[in-house]
Amino acid sequence: MPGDTGDPGEVGEVGETPGGGAAASRVAGDPPTDPMRRALARAATARRRSAPNPWVGCVIVGPDGVVVGEGATAVPGGPHAEIEALREAGERARGATAYVTLEPCAHRGRTGPCAGALVDAGIARVVSALEDPDPRVAGRGHGWLRAEGVEVDVGVGAGEAADLLAPYLHQRRTGRAFAVLKTAASLDGRTAAADGSSRWITGPDARADAHALRADSQAVVVGSGTALADRPSLTVRDLPGGADDPGPPARPALRVVLDARGRVPAEGPLSDTGIAPTLVVTTEAGDARRLDEWRAAGATVEVAPPGPGGVGVDPAEVLALLARDHGVVQALVEGGARLHGSLLTAGLADRLVAYVAPLVLGERGRAVFGVPGPDSIEAARPLRLLSVVPLGRDVRLDLEPDSREHPDGPPRPGREEAA
Ligand SMILES: NC(=O)c1ccc[n+]([C@@H]2O[C@H](COP(=O)([O-])OP(=O)(O)OC[C@H]3O[C@@H](n4cnc5c(N)ncnc54)[C@H](OP(=O)(O)O)[C@@H]3O)[C@@H](O)[C@H]2O)c1
């Protein structure tokens, strides 16, 4: 699975892998051919460096079926996958087929348009997995190629490419960062024991996997309750390693504290902006003196409207400002219960990653989601299970909101199918 990071462990029957990949693709398309599979694998290597640009792979195959060039998106401002592959191919690109995991760009950003470069290099055919929803591209790349006489096939490996690029596709379609809610809880859904202690509920394998999730994210978000109680550092530390792990991110993730009233003092690891940047999102009601202390520590402070019912900061606005002003494609929300609850209630949880530990903490422990919950099973909104992965003594579950009303109700198309 191209988007995967971390140690997959033994794969359960429902799904496949940790690290952001979904088990079964929800996008229709043709299965990937070998060169497209290779391009997808290359794309996965760029995941931790390309944001806010998409992580894309390109493989160029000559008329004799031999691979003559391949590439993946570099850091922002660096060459896109197609340019890297064309450079490697040189003259051998003439009359060749380019396999790309996303529509080549048609606009001049910090680099030139890739569609034009493919034409100039003499590429005869482009096999593309997906159209790019970015409004600056949105079919123009494919259109450019066709207008110049290049044969274009779209949809090969579409499902795999959409799974790999799910956060990017969501961010470009909605203007909001893709919110992944991470929980670590006991078998009975408790994140902390009666005395509030929560370290370490899960074992080392699950914790290393959670660091891979951080590495795949451009922001790690917590509520003020967690910032006050845990004084977390929210940095990437013990990655699982291994052949499939793309390694540390090119830039440390933005650490984000949602603190509507400015209750969190500028102390501890989050105030050390030398190790990673920190953003405090507050409201007009935020304590000005405390927020100045954050600014003095080198953190950025942004003001957002209050959340629904006046609770906290507006979570939709937070996800929008992360995408718009901070280039965040995927935001990993690490709790606590109240923040998780408000995102879930607002329908803003795009993916849930639940690490379940073989412990029972009982009814005096704290619940994972700070929500009152539905009155009946009929009123409960099901989540759709994407994958189950054992990680040492723990289990990782990947889920997403389901469009069905009830587990026993009639199935409806998934989000991507309906799009
Ligand atoms: N085991 C785990 O996985 C895990 C993970 C994280 C935390 N924890 C534990 O959870 C406890 C903290 O949980 P918590 O529920 O009190 O803290 P939380 O969810 O981190 O913080 C809640 C506070 O965040 C602020 N906030 C800002 N915007 C919000 C929004 N849109 N929705 C909800 N809250 C928003 C609110 O305070 P203001 O209105 O003042 O801004 C709110 O009271 C700690 O004991 C921590 O150790 C466990």
Describe this structure in a few short sentences.
The chain has 419 residues and is an alpha/beta fold.
Could you report the average pLDDT, rounded to the nearest whole number?
87
Strand sequence of the main sheet, in spatial order? 11-10-9-8-12-6-13-16-15
Low-pLDDT stretches: 1-24, 404-419
Let me know the number of strands: 16
Q: Give the percentage of residues in beta strands.
A: 15-25%
Question: What is the count of DSSP helices, taking H or I runs of 4+ residues?
Answer: 12
Task: Describe the 3D structure.
There is one protein chain. This protein has 419 residues and is an alpha/beta fold. The protein is built from 12 helices and 16 strands. The protein has helices spanning 34-45, 81-89, 114-120, 140-147, 158-164, 166-174, 204-215, 224-230, 288-296, 315-326, 337-345, 415-418, and strands at residues 57-61, 67-72, 97-100, 125-128, 151-154, 178-186, 190-192, 219-223, 254-258, 278-282, 300-303, 330-333, 351-357, 366-367, 383-391, 394-401. A hairpin with a 5-residue loop joins strand 1 (57-61) and strand 2 (67-72). Helix 3 (114-120) runs parallel beside helix 4. Mean pLDDT is 87; it is low at 1-24 and 404-419.
